[in-house]
Design goal:
The complex is a heterodimer of chains A (127) and B (132). Helices cover 80% and strands 0% of the residues of chain A. Chain A has 127 residues and is mainly α. In chain A, α2 (20-48) crosses α4 and α4 packs antiparallel against α5 (95-125). Chain B has 132 residues and is an all-alpha fold. The radius of gyration of chain B is 21 Å and the shape is elongated. The chains are: A mainly alpha (127), B mainly alpha (132). Chain B: The chain crosses the membrane at residues 29-49, 69-90, 111-131.
Chain lengths: 127, 132
């Protein structure tokens, strides 16, 4: 009946007490990088409005467009992986579901990243 | 007997449902929701890039869907989510340096973020239609 464990002893060893700061920092660093990159990408998308298939591919294939666009995608994906990890940790209290969602989060990010990277590489170098 | 039982009977401090809803709470949850929306939105980016990498047909299909009324509404929401999340991010960075955390100031920056995100979205779409 009586629970002999203190609240502190119940939570000890559950959350990480070591990597929280680096998680926090990674979110801030990626967000700082994303500020100029997302402004660039919004400008890029606006400038491409109404452009043809050939024109879009020619623009995206330019190094000075391709590199920041690729950086935007990769850094966005890492930023959102970290963010979703935080949301899952906040709201999901069932351990199995939490771990599953965290894995799916990573899978989703890597999958989207792979698809975007392949497409951009194909546009720049492929047929 | 055990300290846990005593602790579990302590009253909780007033929480979400007790307070009158301030604008800062709206912006707080909006930051999460827009983050989640942008997460899903990457699928649109991926689709558009795949289309551009595949064939003129695929590209035309993607453009037709995104250029439809519903497509445009989704993209308008996407633009707004991006600006609100970006401005919210700047607000968070300000807080990280320890400034602008007072009640009145945080309410002012909340309104400022909301207004800035709407203005930036409007400017982007005006520019878009000028290009088109």
């Amino acid at each position: 009946m009586a629970d002999m464990r203190t609240p502190l002893s119940k939570v000890r060893g559950l959350g990480s007490t070591k990597s929280g700061t680096s998680h926090f920092w990674a979110v801030r660093v990626s967000s700082a990088a994303l500020l100029p990159l997302s402004l660039f990408v919004i400008g890029l998308v606006v400038s491409l409005a109404g452009s043809s298939f050939v024109e879009v591919r020619a623009t995206l294939g330019q190094p000075l467009v391709w590199v920041p666009l690729m950086l935007f995608i990769l850094i966005s994906l890492e930023h959102m992986r970290l963010g979703m990890q935080e949301v899952v940790a906040d709201y999901i209290h069932n351990e199995l579901l939490k771990v599953t969602l965290m894995m799916l989060n990573s899978f989703f990010v890597v999958l989207v990243g792979g698809i975007c990277a392949f497409s951009l590489l194909k546009i720049a170098f492929g047929a | 007997m055990s300290r846990t039982t005593v602790a579990s009977q302590r009253p909780l401090s007033p929480h979400l449902t007790i307070y009158r809803w301030p604008i800062t709470m709206t912006l707080s949850i909006a930051h999460r929701i827009t983050g989640g929306a942008l997460y899903v939105g990457t699928l649109l980016v991926a689709w558009w890039l795949v289309a551009a990498a595949t064939s003129p047909d695929w590209f035309a299909t993607a453009n037709a869907v995104m250029g439809s009324i519903i497509g445009k509404l989704v993209l308008l929401g996407y633009t707004w989510a991006m600006f609100l999340h970006a401005v919210g991010g700047v607000r968070h960075m300000l807080w990280d340096t320890g400034v602008a955390m007072e009640k009145q100031v945080s309410r002012q920056t909340a309104w400022a973020s909301l207004i800035a995100s709407v203005v930036l979205t409007a400017l982007t779409w005006i520019a878009l239609y000028l290009v088109l």
